Records
---
Amino acid sequence: MIDFAKKPLFLAPLAGFSDLPLREVVKNFGCDVTISEMISANALVYEGKKSLKMVQKSPNETPYIVQIAGVDLNNIKKAVEILNGIDGIDGIDLNCGCPVPKVVKQESGSALLKNLDHLKRVIETIKTTSKKPTTSAKIRLGFDEKIPELIARACQDAGADYIAIHGRTRAGGYTAKVDYEAIKIAKEAVKIPVIANGDINAQNADFVLKTTNADALMIGRASIGNPWIFAQIKDAKSVSGALKKQIILAHFDAMIRYYGIQGVSIFRKHLHQYSKGLSEAASFRDEINRIDDLDLMRLKIENFF
């Protein structure tokens, strides 16, 4: 379902941002593959209601991948069995890159990069249990040191159909310079498709593809307040103000459909990003921070943008 020959664009899983409304919007404006926010396998098994809402997809999300995080093989298996019973999921991705301390403390996320044997067992558990078309992993270059080829081979040997590589180690967080050459090393070490991730924007997308020789690109933080980036990369031209306004309003409407009236206040964080760099942005943010009325918020968005 994912045609890597066409160098597809993925939306990266972003905690607190890549929910159903954002994914619905980017799918309409150039994104090829969407991925859920990271979902804890333990939470899916023991606190199902909230996690199951995070799994929900928009009708336009095809292909749609669900990303899970975990380390306990029994809970991983149970989580995958739950996802097997949900239609519309085209693949299950394992998070092996999250650098957040509370995730690492549980030996999950990027902590799996310290124990490649167990990383392989987790991927193998997903692969053998899943009834979905694809199994994949999102990794970093390493935990403290860069070992991209070893990690990539471990994922391939465990049965991953493709991998996405964030071009930093866990120690590099989100501030170290992205090492695209290291992604290329991983790409050369395996036969499965490799997706490049990390500080990719409309200006450097072609450079990243050529440098890494990757089969696809995954866009993360550059899409926040800028979901038209997928259209920019594909068309290699700027997006008109009219289209930007259309996208922002479509995003707002999708938030209301998904969250109800609560979507008005939740959308403020997106409006803060959308308004960055624009004239009168500070006063606009101050104003919307006090608005809870749906119609008034929509009017303010229409007038400002």
---
Amino acid sequence: MAPKKKFSKEQIIDAAFEIAKTDGMDSISIRKVAEKLGSSIAPIYVNFSEVDELKKEVMKKIIELSNQLLSEQNSGHPFRDIGVASLRFAREYSVLFRDLVMKQNEYMDSYDDDMGHGLVEMMKGDSNLAGFSQEELMTIFFKMRVFTVGLSVMVANGLLPKEFNEEKGVEFLNSTATDVITTARLNKGMD
């Protein structure tokens, strides 16, 4: 009998991520991951006692990916960068985006907790947002998130005109962010 192959935890997570990327989070199963690795299910169960544990690790990988996309923007305007990273994620990982954003699931609970507060902290570094309280920044973030998710849904589902490219998306994000911030400043009596 041939010896059983051994796989690192990271290799198993990567295989599960590849399944989620093409078929969605609900498609991850121990059997499918084993097939992807060309293995029996035994090596997967050595590292993960159940599929939900593996899915949580895949979600952590998605959060890392989101952070990476965000860090690649680095325009000096974190508020803008958040929107651009979201559009990129929707375009490059459309199945995952639709799976996580357009379906009710427990995965987004941890995403919101992990990412939401960190993103508002990043917004504090944006000179355009100086003078707003934490609560006001949360409201601004939520308004922009509603717009950005809507635009990202259109990107992920191919619902935008062909001429709508990333540059046009950035223009839309900038214009909408300016509108939201200007309105918030006016409402606060800052301008």
---
Amino acid sequence: MGKVIKTLFLCQYLEQEALRREIHEGLNVVENWNSANSFIFYGKGGEVATNQLEDQELSVLALHLVQICLVYVNTLMIQQVTSATEWGGVLTEEDYRALSPLIYAHVNPYGIFELDMTQRLPIEQALTA
């Protein structure tokens, strides 16, 4: 039965351009996600270098936390930029669909990070305005 299902899927894949395009777009998202993971999880070559289950779980949870923070801050920054009045008539619906918060070219994982807990990011000011 599995071979029949696989053959049916391959026939649909070859026949339907929309299906091929959807699968290709999904693969691009996954490849971009994996690329971001290898960029932000750079310690020990980006690999979980232990066979201790608790240490592996801690590494993966830390990676997920960094991923979530990266996507959240990027989403706030994209919202701030796109809500500016000068972008009102410039961006089309396709442009908005192409926006992704999974960008990391602006991140420096090797630099010095100054953390001032008495100040907030100016991103929230744009959201409340």
